Structures are given as C-alpha cells and as structure tokens.
Amino acid sequence: MQDQINNFLTNFFESELKQCASIDDLEKIRVKTTGKKGFVTTMLKQLSSLSIEEKKTFGPKMHKLKTDVLSAIEEKKNNLEETALNKKLESEKIDPTLPGNKLKRGSLHPITLVINEAQRIFGKLGYVVAEGPEVETDFFNFGALNFPDDHPARDMHDTFYIDSDPATLLRTHTSNVQVHIMQEFKPPIKAIMPGKVFRSDADVSHSPVFHQVEGLYVDKNVSFSNLKATLQYFLDEFFQKGNKIRLRPSYFPFTEPSAEIDVECVICKGTGCGVCKKTGWIEILGAGMVDPNVLKNVNIDPEVYSGFAFGVGVERLAMLKYGINNIKLFFDNHAYFTEQF
C-alpha cells in the first residue's frame, strides 16, 4: 500500500498537476483522484480490510493524503482562474480615448405633461390635488352623484363591472373623488382630481381607458360667473392664445345648471377648419353648479353652500395642444411618439 501511495503522489504532483492547463482538465484530475471511484477514495475503502496495526499506520496517512490532494487541487484552481482573468483583462483593455456611448434622454409622456400643467395652473388659484380609488362602489360613482337607477351610464355596455360584486365597478369619471372629499372635509373645498377612468368605448377619439382632470369648488356664495372666469383663466393659461370660450346649455345628473364648454378652435382661430368641422369651435369640457341633491348626499347644506364642478379629458387637451390625431397613439407605447415631447 505504501508503494501505491508513493507512486500516486509522484505522478500526481510531478506530472498531472504540473501539466494541467485548464479548469476542465483539473476537474478531470479531481474526479480521477478524489471522486467516487478515484484512487484516494478507493484506498480509503480498503482500510476496512486491514489489520488493527495496519489501520493505525495507514489510516492517518490516507486522511493526510486526501487533505493534501484536495488542498493542491484548490490551489491549482485558484492559480488557473487568476491566470485566465489576467489574460482576459489584458485582451479587453479599455481605451479611455474613445468617445463614450451616448445615452438617449427620456421624455415625459404628453398625458403627464398635460396633468402637470393643469396642476400648475390650478395651483395658482389655490386648488389642491386629490386622488381616489379606481375600483369604486356604485354609491360613490353613481348614487351620491344623483344618477337615477335607470341612467344609461349604469348600463354594462358603458361601464365595467366586477363579476364577483355587481355593486363594484371601475370608475367612469374622477367625480367619485369629489364625493370622498366632500364627505371627509367641510367647506370651503377647492380641489382638482386628475386620474385614470374607464368606459366601454373605443374609436379614433375614444379609449376604454383614458384620463380626466376634474375640479370642485364649494363655499359660500360660489356663482356661475366664478365657474366661467375659472375656466377662461385655465384655457388661456393652457393654450397661451387667449382663445374665446362659449357655454352651451347641457345636462349632467350632478350639476344644475350644466353647460358644455367650447373653446375657439386653436388651429384656425375661429375661422373654420377640418379640426373644428368648419364651426370655429371645439367642445372641450363639461361643467356646472353642483346639484343641491349631491350636496345633501354628502351632508353639506345647500342653503348655506354652493359650488361648481368641471371635468376635462386629458387626452382631448393633449390632442389639441400637440396636434395629435389619434387617441390610440397615447397607449401604443412607441418611443418615436413620446420622444417628440
């Protein structure tokens, strides 16, 4: 056994380990020496057949042999890895004189730009920003806002309902936030509510997912003239063109009186073009005085307080401001579109 050990050590250290030039070759040597069928493992198994005296002699030697072999293999592995790393570093030197790779600058999405601009403008008028849930109950989305049970907006063709709970839906407007803040805070209330809304509608100018900015002002002696002046100021600031506005009588369940707000066409300045369908006007938002029933639903006395509310589609504003002709461009997620802004 001693002769076998000596021959193995000579061959291992003087031949195999010295000639090994790669990690793959070293792994083969490890398997050949200390693997399940390797020399060292086989010799250790033979100890059980030796006499007690022979075990005392060869047992410590075999365990030392195993330790020495494993240590030598590990040291050789470290040397090979270091050599390989140095060669790689030598072949992959960086030339600091070469120009660096230019990184493309990102840009804000036009929807974000419009929302930020609306927040800036209304912030100058003292409005705070309020947010609310996108998954809402029927009460906050319809009931508290004076929608009758048979109103078309409640139809499943217009609204996304949750199958597991028919009284839960994806909000169709950010007016639900108005109800939340009127329940939580006492007047005076002055807030805008930007956010994502959902309706079962899709064509070149409509999307089942879009964004709104709604506004609410509730206080003593709030009048319709306050509403008109506020919207005129916002549109003047937003378009920076001093466009005229006009108010057309309309109907919304949660405001009375109600009006559709048209702005003088930002393209033709009122002379008539394809964008405004030769009318000189573009419908841009809806507004009105808060219906007394809505105030009663949130425990605000309509005999003491009055208010106005308005809502505008963010995509509509962006399309007019930036000349975008298809609402789907906002959601296609193409870099060539967003980098224009």
Entry summary:
This protein is an alpha+beta fold.
Count of helix runs: 11
**CATH class label of the largest domain:** Alpha Beta
Can you summarize the main beta sheet? 7 strands, mixed
CATH architectural arrangement of the largest domain = 2-Layer Sandwich
Low-confidence stretches: none
How many structural domains?
Answer: 2
Mean pLDDT: 85
Strand percent estimate: 15-25%
Structure overview:
With 341 residues, the protein is an alpha+beta fold. It folds into two domains: 2-91; 110-338, Bira Bifunctional Protein, Domain 2 (BirA Bifunctional Protein, domain 2, 2-Layer Sandwich). Helices cover 42% and strands 21% of the residues. The protein has eleven helices and ten strands. The protein has a seven-stranded mixed beta sheet with strand order 1-5-6-10-9-8-7, with helices on both faces. A three-stranded antiparallel beta sheet has the order 2-4-3. Helix 1 (2-19) packs parallel to helix 4 (52-91) and helix 3 packs antiparallel against helix 4. The mean pLDDT is 85.
